[in-house]
Amino acid sequence: MLNHNKASRVKGRSRYKEIFLKTLLFGVLWWSLVESTFSSWLIGIIVVPFAAWLSITLYRNNTQKSENTTSFSIVGLLKFLPFFAWQSLKGGYQTASLALSSRAAPADFIEFETFLGSRREKILFMHIISLMPGSLTANINGQIIRIHILDINEYSEDGLRDCEQRLSRIFVNYDPLSTTGGEK
């Protein structure tokens, strides 16, 4: 009975941590989207908690437990955010440049094989790719992500690999069956 109560408290703390971190993440996203305008928080005070709740509700997997569970690394996120901001700015600049220029860029689709494990990681990676310079994800099939590249001459697989590795540091995989309970 005592172990059950302790497990419940740990699970409860983990849930509160998830709610806090997602609310913080969506708060930072809201703040950056509205260009730190204070008056926008009249709407943000409703949107941010709703987005956090929706995120938790949609990604919860109640049907089955996998062998490996994924935890969130705040240090990994803090290291990823400057990279993400820079890539978003570069992507916006490249897209605007292509839209305003008279030259037609040779667009094409590529297939990229990812090493990311969970579906959650792959979906987040797909969304991030869409904000990177000149790319938009089109489809995912297993480990293969189909990506539309605006200018195939400027495509770099190294850029996608770099993004993928940086993103993987946000998620920490644990094996609950191991005796140490440490990272894999």
Walkthrough of the structure:
This protein has helices at 2-33, 41-59, 74-100, 119-131, 157-168, and strands at residues 69-72, 108-113, 135-141, 144-149, 171-174. The protein is an alpha+beta fold. It folds into two domains: 1-60; 72-184, no CATH class. The strands form two sheets. Strands 2-4-3 form a three-stranded antiparallel β-sheet, with helices on one face. Strands 1-5 form a two-stranded antiparallel ribbon. Strand 3 (135-141) and strand 4 form a beta hairpin. Helix 1 crosses helix 2 (41-59) and helix 3 packs antiparallel against helix 5 (157-168). The two termini are 30 Å apart.
Topology overview:
Blueprint: H1 2-33, H2 41-59, E1 69-72, H3 74-100, E2 108-113, H4 119-131, E3 135-141, E4 144-149, H5 157-168, E5 171-174
Antiparallel strand pairs: 1-5, 2-4, 3-4
Helix pairs in contact: 1-2, 3-5, 4-5
Low-pLDDT residue spans: 62-68, 174-184
In total, the number of domains comes to 2
Question: How many strands, which pairing sense, and closed or not: the largest β-sheet?
Answer: 3 strands, antiparallel
Q: So what's the oligomer here?
A: single chain
Broad structural category: alpha+beta
Which bin fits the share of residues in helices? 55-70%
Q: Categorize the overall geometry.
A: globular
DSSP E strands, number:
5
Q: Radius of gyration over alpha carbons?
A: 19 Å
> What's the SSE pattern?
HHEHEHEEHE
What is the number of helical segments per DSSP (H or I, 4+ residues)?
5
Beta-strand percentage? 5-15%
Mean pLDDT: 77
**Order of strands, widest sheet:** 2-4-3
Distance between the termini: 30 Å
